[in-house]
Amino acid sequence: MPSSTSSSDRPGFVRLTASNRPGVAQPVPERDIPARPWRPIMLGAMGMFVLMMGGWEWYWRANGAVPGYRNSDAEWAHERRRIDHGEGAKTVLIGSSRVLFDIQLPVWERITGERPIQLALEGTSPMPILEDLADDPDLTGRLLVGVTPGLFFTGRAARGSVVKYAHDEGPSQRIGNWLSRLLVEPHFAYYDPDFALATVIERQDWPLRPGTRAARNVRKLKIQDADRNSYMWSKVELDPDYRALCRAVWAANFNKPPPGMETAAAKQKLIDDQIARAVAAVTKLRARGVRVVFVRLPSAGELYANEQKTLPRGETWDLLLKRTGAPGIHFEDYPELQGYNLPEWSHLSASEAARFTAALVPIVDRMFRDRER
Amino acid sequence: MVFNSLTFVVFFACVLALHAMPFPWPVKKVNLLVASYLFYAAWNPPFVILLWISTVVDWYAAQALVHAQRPAVRRAWMLLSVVANLGMLSYFKYGTFLLDNFSSLLSVIGVSYQPPHFAIVLPVGISFYTFATMSYTLDVYLRRAAPARNFLDYALFVTFFPHLVAGPIMRPTELVPQFAEPRRATPDMLRFGLALITLGLFQKIVLADSFLGPAAEAVFDHGKGPGVLDAWAGTLAFSGQIFCDFAGYSTTAIGVAMCLGFAMPDNFRFPYAAIGFSDFWRRWHITLSAWLRDYLYIPLGGNRHGPARTYVALMVTMLLGGLWHGASWTFVVWGGLHGVYLAVERLLRSRFSGYRPGPWMLVVFGLLTYALIDVTWVFFRAHSFGGAWLVLTGMFGANAGAEPILLTADLTLVALIVSGIVFAHWRMRARTLEAMLATVPAVALACVWAVMAFAIVIAQGAGNAFIYFQF
Prior knowledge:
The complex is a heterodimer. By secondary structure, chain A is α/β, with parallel strands linked by helices.
């Protein structure tokens, strides 16, 4: 590699490639190093890079962001593996984002002495996870299944592919997650999908193209700990504009039927299908002694009203409990599970989640014990 | 492991440190070999066995080839190598495809056959390293090259991690001689290598994954026929994505090898400035097109046996080249279209051999080439002919009343990035990157380098696999 020879010494020089030498043995490639002062260039680039990164981190912290662990597939797989590595007798939490926000693992641990395994996924029906766990003989403990009507009974699973990821995850991905947890996630606030370059650019005030709707993706709502314990980001609770934006994201879907439920017949079929999946999974779990409880966590405001309208309890929740024969906890049935602050209608604030968990755990515990007798 | 991952950053730092230690050269080569196996095993450890099989079979086949005197015996050893490599490739890559097509064929003649379900996992990069090892025995068989003098150099040629899983597809004569003498990067080689790695990762993480990929996906996976604007924007976005993804990988690989003191060949040369399709294939995935030319097109007769045979050889080469990219008929059509383009171009060149286009006509021909290549990308990107047809009809205005798909931000970014890529290719079409960089002020180079590195980090790439890994 003639580093002393620069292509700038030979104006118009273009290296020959294999395409210029048909049917012969290809020689050792020639690569040039442009004759530039690379040492100061690299030092200058490194200096500017550090300054820009510092400014970027400062900007997000000034906007209220704090470092947290990433809600990645690898992180979910990390928690999922605990079941297969000797912790299968513990309580496992599955469900959608309400289980993530509303159930605080430290509070649960303080009350019961056991810290559950958190496997809930935002925007995702628990059904793929429930079915995966039903087929896993290593799970022998207790299973709490969160029921968010718009996800559970439609089967929508934005992150359902995580199950396959967890089974297929290679050594490189595991090591990458371990390094990220060690070197990046607990230290940098900017490292959050909501603050990624493409997301930031997309969320600028672009003129609306006729016939399209403005992108209304769910905003950053939570902070996550190392074992996926999650709680609401304080900005949602304290910043009225941001809270209104978060509510508007939910409201964008209010005046239309849930996907796949455009007709009464399609709706009923979808609900029946999802309940049938749940029945099959719960039957398997019970056969090997796993206790299962369904939990309908609170919602509020216009979101609650919309849930009542589109997926009323009598057509969904009650059928689920009847057909599975599993116990269920609906927040409407327990005074101690009502009256909490849900800033954006769907999830409890961090402080309320702690209070709520303290009220929920004894009920769950009682229900599990009842089934054991 | 993928280049765009934290795992690779740490791995590469360890390899660089180890390579800089004062070990004897053979020990450094063993270090590189072990590191390369670790690099590959990080995806799926058992698949290292396939790598070993390919390595050992071709080593012994080449040794036997040298000592064999009779042509029949030489041919037998060559065929052993080809059958072993293509057999592995066929089983893992085309097994399900062949069975499905066999089943469909039987159903056409009224026989119902349901093939057993095999969950065959495609070993990453198998198409690349089988072609690299085959070129070793084929070069020895064709007496173009002598076999490697020792097994370590040969095994390192096959396994050397910068080119292992997605090329450039190296020939033994390009790499084995580099292992003969101790190599270590000079400080400037190391710095420039790091700059190339930054450029490659910028192309992949920022341009391909963050901006172009999602726009292409929105159009191609929409499920309904797009309008003219969306269809073209989605296709142009994919043309930019596939280039930034693959050229980004090649640039990173070249940079990684350079940091260790090795030279790898160019794999891309500003292909969207191509004027004509033979020019395109001299600029796009150069190491594959040269491989297909040397080991398929020329042995099929090339242009030595009259026009008819030339066109047949051309079409067979391009159809198989399409199939190399994936076990799907859409890839075959993609290759077939390129074959047709090349054949038509050849015909026109012979008919109008005296024609010399002026500068503006060159631009027109260049843009026409790019537009026709975009049509082929539709088959490359779509998951089925139905999906391809939806986008193609959209591109030609046949999806009346189609609902808009892409937002203003997507359209703007696709337009900016793709026109930037095409413009840059035209500015660079007769130059090398190095020749251009040699004329740029140092301050500007430092700024661009810093901005690219900053963009890579804040893009927060999810470690998406490179598109060509699936091939």
